[in-house]
Each structure stands twice: as structure tokens, then as C-alpha cells.
Amino acid sequence: MGDGNMMISLPPGFQFCPTDQELVLHFLYRKALLLPCHPTIPDLNLHLYNPWEFNGRALLSGNIYYFFSKVKENRTTKNGYWKESDVDEVPIQASHGEKVGVKKFLVFCLGVPPTGNKTSWVMEEYKICNTSGFSAAVYKKRGKQKLNCNKWVLCRVHERKGILSEQHTLCYGDDDDDNGTELSCLDEMFLSLDDDLEEISLQTD
């Protein structure tokens, strides 16, 4: 499963929404050790595809794409490039507090670097911290001479709705922001139910 044109998605009723820690420890570390991951996250050559071409090639959950990619300094594609954001990298810690990885933020730009125009496509790129004691413990347990921490990154990509500042786009930190997601049918049903109950309450009062 990789760069072929196939549908890579979860069965109806299932959703893939791992935490940052889970993405690093349960998926990226397993990838570095050549162990299987469930669900399977495919490999993708970032140079070959624009973000709107990920459908059918990356693991899709909701409106978010997940895939592994080789570490590259140059992230250009057919129509643009992925630009690193000014937002600081986020350290990923294990449950005991040790730093095991980092998360970097990027935005997709159309055109030629460095003068391209930013789009609403954003990426979180996860990388293993190869100096951690956790890595050393994995080497010993698996009998590995070296864990290839610097070969792979795990990418989480989605398209933001509306025009937002880069800080809001990449950090989801605005309480007034709806994170670019639409209400599901159930959400709309419960909201309409709340409105009906409020109306009934006003009538009885």
C-alpha cells in the first residue's frame, strides 16, 4: 500500500483520531522498526502529489489524511511546495515526561519558492527524537544496532475552511474557531432538539 491509486479509508463507523504521543510511539516508532501498524498508514512520495491528490493514496479519517514520507529538506510538488511555519516545533513526550519526538507545522503554497501563495492546506509533520532514552530501550529490546529515526516522518494533513491567519490555521488554538469542520447530522439534530426544548420551556413559563 503506497503510491498506487487505491482507496485507503476506514470502514463505516470507525474513526482514526490518535494523539500526538500515539502517532509517535505507536506508529512512527513501529515504522522505524519495520513493524506492522494497525490501521495501516501508507508511504507517500511527497514530491509526486499536491495535497488535493491525497484522496485514495493516504489513510483518510474524516477530513484528515495520514501517511509516512521520507525525510526531505526540499518539499516541492508539481504545483507548489510545503513551507515551514514560523510556529515553534512542539515537543512530544511519553507518559513519564521524556521527549520522544517533535511536531513541525507547514502550509502548502502554490507557485515557486519562496514567492508562492499560501493555501488552506496545512500539515503536521512528526519526527522521532533519536536521542531519547526510549529509543535506546527499543534498540536493546529489538536487538537493533541502530534505529533509523531520521529516515521517516509521519504526516497529518487537512484543508482548513475559510481564510484564517497562519497562527490559527496551524495551531487550532482559537476558541472562536470551529476548526474548519462541519456539523454532522447528529450534531444538527441535537442542536435543533435543544432549540425545540428551549421553545417549549418558554411557552410553559
From TrEMBL:
Keywords: DNA-binding, Nucleus, Transcription, Transcription regulation. Residues 10-160 form the NAC domain. It comes from Ziziphus jujuba. GO terms for molecular function: DNA binding. The gene is LOC107425614. One of its GO terms (biological process) is system development. This is NAC domain-containing protein 104. Pfam families: NAM (PF02365).
